[in-house]
Amino acid sequence: RKEFVDLYVNYVCNESIQKPFEDFKKGFLRGCPAVKWKMFLPAELQIVLQGHKKYDWSLLQENVKYSEYKKLDKTIRNFWTVFYKLPEEKKKMFFAFLTGSDRIPGYGLEYFTFTIAEHKAENPDEFYPFASTCYRTLVLPR
């Protein structure tokens, strides 16, 4: 019985999935060559692939750039006041709105920058804020 169970478990866990796994591995390694991954420790590789999970929102504010706005403009002060009052989950949702992901890139938040730009409109009350995830730009009407 033990031999049968051992052979059955080996078949289910190894042999039966070998061909589909090899196909997956071949496609995966075409886009993500494993040779370059050997320089990472497992924890570092996880950060590269998934991003950081620790958020320091004050670093986000420090690294922001302004286009057409100044740091002390009323719109900017109001934005940061509201932002810091948000619960943690809503802040992550904002980060996802801005970047397309709620995770901080592998290089860390201290090097992450984004831009807050003014939406040029005759009547800014008719426009909602929007984000360009490619350029990490938040466009705010005054």
Describe this structure in words.
With 142 residues, the chain is an alpha/beta fold. It folds into two domains: 1-39, no CATH class; 57-141, Hect, E3 ligase catalytic domain (Hect, E3 ligase catalytic fold, 2-Layer Sandwich). 47% of the residues lie in helices and 10% in strands. The chain is built from six helices and four strands, in the order H-H-H-H-E-H-H-E-E-E. Strands 1-2-4-3 form a four-stranded mixed β-sheet, covered by helices on one side. Strand 3 and strand 4 form a beta hairpin. The radius of gyration is 23 Å and the shape is elongated. The termini are far apart. The model has no long low-confidence stretch (mean pLDDT 87).
Strand order of the largest sheet: 1-2-4-3
- Portion of residues in beta strands equals 5-15%
Give the CATH class of the largest domain: Alpha Beta
* Fraction of helical residues: 40-55%
Largest sheet: 4 strands, mixed
* CATH homologous superfamily label of the largest domain: Hect, E3 ligase catalytic domain
Q: What characteristics describe this protein?
A:
single chain; 142 residues; alpha/beta; Hect, E3 ligase catalytic fold; 2 domains; four-stranded mixed beta sheet; 4 strands; 10% strand; elongated; EC 2.3.2.26; Hect_E3_ubiquitin_ligase; ubiquitin protein ligase activity; HECT-type E3 ubiquitin transferase
In short:
With 142 residues, the chain is an alpha/beta fold. Helices cover 47% and strands 10% of the residues. It has six helices and four strands; from the N terminus they run ααααβααβββ.
